[in-house]
């Protein structure tokens, strides 16, 4: 045997050994188990969703550049602007009219022109005012038109403008100046010279249209913790309505149940010995009420959810698809998350699903607390949706999306990773049955849901906004409240308005009410509203005439007018309330989607209140109206600072028009009463503080659409349930080898404040 033959045989032997080793190493694994598979693609063109896309930073900058060069007035950057200046307050997408969009999406029409809506404060004019200008077309604008009168029926008074960050800075400077007039009082009451105290605004600002006077509550400031639980008992009323900052003044002072004309007056009463003083020490960071610093060292890691073969959803630009679902998402910097063109299996179910407003209304025996009715849209629900913490706010492996906005500055800002998208295994069957009669089998389907989430931090509170899409064709909308409670200084009969949660801290009662717009298009734009509920009737038994039975039956009713479809808050709602199509399903029932509200709202402000009309949407837990382009929102950012003459009054939308076979909108209020208690310290927990609603198919399909899910499980007593071919659950053991390589943790949320 020559050397060449030996080398050939040796090479063959080595190749054989290598092949055997590979077989042994891969024995028991399903080939390709960990291979990332592309998500199923939907029929809708991704580019169509861009008709709803939020503005890009480049587009915002182009709008600012155009306005600066084409209005003929000097514009000061809003971050530096005084009330007497002109400035650009915000720039956002001008959402095209629905008819234009549908012609483009459904009928091959032209794409609507892309436009922006710019809000400007004109303080340097003979008649200062707020103006709204539509600017277009983007990305290179060449025109603008003033739509203020068209939208609101007249010019917008200047006093209705939201308070800017610069205005708050100037107010705080005034308060610090005034505090210096009470040095001995501050030293004794708070161990302070005023510089370690922070202020919290209240709203609205006065008692009548034109007022701009605000109570500010003072708290001890401690680095690294929320100051909201450390009130010092001092509150000040500031008049900041004049266009000249130098004319602003402090009108009243409140301390521990008493009112004073000024801080100087307070100092004089204290020095004269006429003040009941409560001495407070500057809280220590390691002992302050409400500290969220961990008290224990980290334990073992918590469970981790991951996708063995990568995400089963697809995100491109502002469009996400998942197992038959197609959703376009975005963010209004004021009102928050908004979804458009929600389709299931290619059919549009919802044209628009958007948050409209969030109200927090407080009670207290202190002036700041008792006068507070926050309308959070005025502050910026979307603007203050900051970066999400990977692995806690959302699953570690979720898809994170940046959001951009332009507000109170001429330069766009980016909230990185401020919206997340993920598939959630709820650890609950969507449906299941174990058969122990006749044939023996098990059938079921896990409740896996696509979730779109963002979280807004509005001063002390954090709101978690969830939009969930189920395999049954149902849409679930839910909001949870967490963060810090707001508090008042505890004195007198404070417990009439809440619970004491600290030595001098009263957790003040309040309600959270949120309002949503749901533009359902069930099997087309033309829908009607139908209610169904149960009644009992007493009938004689057909087989035993001397006996009777109580037989439940369905009471069905078509609601024909808007007044019939306006259901007062906390009044009984029909258990089944559905948007119905004129078209039947296979079983001759109208194809429908049911609205199911989950809420335990507090009481609405009495209609006799001078500011009630500004939040009149809160009168109704559900109201259905005809859709109108001129009624796009139920609230306004201008309602906060002039609730006495509201810019938008939702109650006026309801004028008893017919709602049979019309394009309809459901307006839904959800919320809860919150009486703070000891367990709200350090933070309010989400458990029990979640409300929302469902949009559920009701005879829309011929059967539950999830029956087609590839995740379905079925095995009988005659099958080997441990065999991967018979039971997909038996394949999961190999999926554990597909644990992902997690990206390093990174958080940049503190960089763009």
Describe the protein's architecture and organization.
This protein is mostly beta strands and about 750 residues long. The protein has three domains: about 50-155, Nuclear Transport Factor 2, Chain: A; about 165-270, Nuclear Transport Factor 2, Chain: A, CATH 3.10.450; about 320-430 and about 455-525 and about 560-700, Copper amine oxidase, catalytic domain (Beta-galactosidase, Chain A, domain 5, Distorted Sandwich), CATH 2.70.98.20. Helices cover about 15% and strands about 40% of the residues. The chain has ten helices and 34 strands. It has a 26-stranded antiparallel beta sheet that branches. A five-stranded antiparallel beta sheet has the order 6-7-8-9-10. β23 and β24 form a beta hairpin. It is globular. One of its GO terms (biological process) is amine metabolic process. Its EC number is 1.4.3.-. GO terms for molecular function: copper ion binding; primary methylamine oxidase activity; quinone binding.
Brief write-up:
The active site is at residues 376, 461. It contains ten helices and 34 strands.
- Main sheet characteristics: 26 strands, antiparallel
> Rounded to an integer, what's the Rg over CA atoms?
30 Å
Tell me, rounded to a whole number, the average pLDDT. 93
Number of distinct beta strands: 34
- What class, by secondary structure content? mainly beta
| Helix fraction bin | 10-25%
Looking at the structure, the CATH topology of the largest domain is Beta-galactosidase, Chain A, domain 5
What CATH architecture of the largest domain do you see? Answer: Distorted Sandwich
CATH class wording of the largest domain: Mainly Beta
Uncertain segments of ≥5 residues (pLDDT<50)? 19-31
The figure for the number of domains is 3
Tertiary shape: globular
Measured by DSSP, the beta-strand proportion falls in 35-45%
N- to C-terminal distance: 80 Å
Helices, by number, come to 10
Going by CATH, the homologous superfamily of the largest domain would be: Copper amine oxidase, catalytic domain
């Amino acid at each position: 045997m020559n050397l060449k033959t030996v080398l050939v045989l040796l090479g063959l032997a080595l190749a054989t050994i290598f092949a055997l080793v590979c077989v042994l190493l891969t024995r028991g694994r399903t080939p390709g188990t960990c291979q990332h598979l592309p998500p199923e693609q939907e029929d809708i063109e991704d580019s169509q969703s861009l008709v709803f896309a939020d503005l890009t930073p480049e587009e915002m900058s182009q709008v600012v550049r155009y306005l600066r060069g084409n209005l003929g007035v000097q514009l000061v950057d809003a971050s530096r602007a005084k009330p007497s200046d002109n400035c650009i307050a915000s720039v956002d997408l001008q959402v095209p009219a629905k008819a234009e969009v549908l012609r483009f999406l459904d009928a091959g029409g032209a794409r609507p022109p892309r436009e922006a809506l710019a809000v400007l404060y004109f303080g340097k004019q003979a008649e200062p005012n707020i103006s709204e200008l539509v600017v277009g077309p983007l990305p290179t604008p060449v025109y603008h038109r003033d739509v203020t009168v068209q939208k609101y029926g007249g010019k917008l008074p200047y006093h209705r403008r939201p308070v800017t960050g610069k205005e708050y800075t100037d107010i705080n400077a005034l308060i610090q100046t005034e505090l210096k007039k009470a040095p001995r009082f501050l030293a004794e009451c708070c161990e302070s010279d005023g510089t370690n105290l922070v202020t919290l605004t209240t709203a609205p600002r006065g008692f009548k249209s034109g007022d701009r006077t605000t109570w500010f509550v003072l708290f001890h400031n401690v680095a690294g913790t929320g100051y909201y639980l450390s009130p010092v008992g001092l509150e000040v009323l500031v008049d900041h309505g004049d266009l000249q900052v130098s004319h602003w003044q402090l009108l009243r002072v409140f301390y521990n149940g008493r009112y004073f004309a000024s801080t100087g007056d307070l100092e004089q009463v204290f020095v004269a010995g006429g003040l009941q003083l409560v001495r407070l020490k500057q809280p220590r960071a390691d002992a302050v009420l409400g500290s969220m610093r961990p008290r224990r060292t980290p334990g073992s890691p918590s469970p981790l959810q991951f996708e063995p073969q990568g995400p089963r959803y697809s995100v491109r630009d502002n469009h996400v698809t998942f197992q038959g679902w197609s959703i376009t998402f975005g963010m209004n910097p004021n009102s928050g998350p908004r979804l458009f063109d929600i389709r299931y299996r290619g059919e549009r179910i919802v044209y628009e699903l958007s948050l409209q407003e969030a109200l927090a209304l407080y009670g207290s025996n202190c002036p700041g607390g008792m006068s507070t009715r926050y309308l959070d849209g005025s502050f910026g629900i979307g603007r203050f949706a900051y970066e999400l913490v990977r692995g806690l706010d959302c699953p570690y492996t979720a898809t994170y999306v940046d959001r951009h906005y332009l507000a109170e500055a001429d330069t766009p800002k980016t909230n990185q990773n401020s919206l997340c998208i993920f598939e959630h295994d709820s650890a609950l069957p969507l449906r299941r049955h174990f058969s122990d009669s006749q044939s023996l089998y098990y059938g079921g389907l896990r409740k896996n849901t696509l979730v779109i989430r963002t979280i807004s931090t509005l001063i002390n509170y954090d709101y978690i906004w969830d939009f969930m899409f189920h395999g049954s064709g149902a849409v679930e909308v839910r909001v949870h409240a967490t963060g810090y409670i707001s508090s008042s200084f505890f004195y007198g009969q404070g417990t009439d308005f809440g619970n004491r949660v600290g030595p001098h801290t009263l957790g003040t009662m309040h309600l959270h009410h949120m309002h949503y717009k749901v533009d359902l298009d069930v099997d087309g734009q033309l829908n009607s509203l139908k209610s169904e509920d149960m009644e009992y009737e007493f009938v004689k038994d057909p087989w035993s005439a001397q006996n009777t039975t109580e037989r439940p039956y369905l009471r069905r009713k078509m609601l024909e007018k808007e007044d019939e479809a306006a259901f007062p808050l906390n009044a009984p709602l029909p258990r089944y309330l559905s948007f119905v199509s004129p078209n039947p399903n296979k079983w001759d029932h109208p194809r429908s989607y049911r609205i199911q509200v989950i809420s335990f709202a507090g009481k609405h402000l009495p209609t006799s209140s001078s500011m009630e009309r500004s939040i009149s949407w809160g009168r109704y837990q559900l109201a259905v109206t005809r859709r109108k382009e001129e009624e796009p929102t139920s609230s306004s950012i201008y309602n906060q600072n002039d609730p006495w003459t509201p810019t938008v009054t939702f109650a006026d939308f309801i004028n008893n028009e017919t709602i049979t076979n019309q394009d309809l909108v459901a307006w839904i209020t959800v919320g809860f009463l919150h009486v703070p208690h000891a367990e709200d310290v350090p933070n309010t927990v989400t458990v029990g503080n979640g409300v929302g609603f469902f949009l559920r198919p009701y005879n829309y399909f011929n059967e539950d659409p999830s029956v087609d899910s590839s995740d379905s499980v079925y095995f009988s007593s005659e099958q080997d349930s441990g065999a991967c071919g018979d039971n997909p659950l038996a394949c999961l053991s190999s999926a554990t080898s597909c644990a992902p390589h997690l990206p390093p943790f990174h958080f940049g949320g503190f960089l763009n404040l």
